[in-house]
Amino acid sequence: AIPLSVDFERGYAETPAEVAANVQAVIDAGAVGINIEDGMQDPRLLVEKIAAIRALPAARELGFFVNARTDVFLRGKESAAEQLAEAIRRLRAYEAAGADGLFAPGLADPAAIAQVVAAVHLPLNLMAFDGVPPAPELERLGVARVSVGAGPMRATLALTRRIATELLGAGTYEGFLRDTLSHAEVKRMFDRHPL
What we know:
CATH class of the largest domain: Alpha Beta
Radius of gyration: 20 Å
Order of helices and strands: EHEHHEHHEHEHEHHH
Shape: globular
CATH superfamily of the largest domain: Phosphoenolpyruvate-binding domains
Oligomer: single chain
CATH architecture of the largest domain: Alpha-Beta Barrel
Strand content: 5-15%
Helix content: 40-55%
Largest sheet: 6 strands, parallel
């Protein structure tokens, strides 16, 4: 089986007890971890949610992975220095609460990345955005994981839109006839990796 980690937003509830109940349902469904975000709410709320998750016997037995996310760099309302200080403050609090990994989407500046890595003791996860250094550079800076998020899906939807526009406009097929995989290649992909 492939381990499944769930993007859990803010826990689909507001209170720590409700979030813990939702996490129990995710564990019961077979997931081994979650990403849970602060949504720029008071960081004490996510600290309490992490503590409630850690209190679940099933989470302890499973070694359930909690990747705590701060949205500080997505907000963009403060100066870069203020964002960095606030992100470090939040990530340290989530680490102290029992998170297993830390996620800071929107963090792109190499010097700031190095400062965050130095300020925390857990694996740091970043999101592949425009302006984020390439994966080898992130690895050199100490980043443990790069998430692509919805990027591949959005790129696929853009291609699908171009194909549909071409079909409906010109009535031609170039959008899906060039730079494509052959039927045999697709079949081999699925033969090697059965679902």
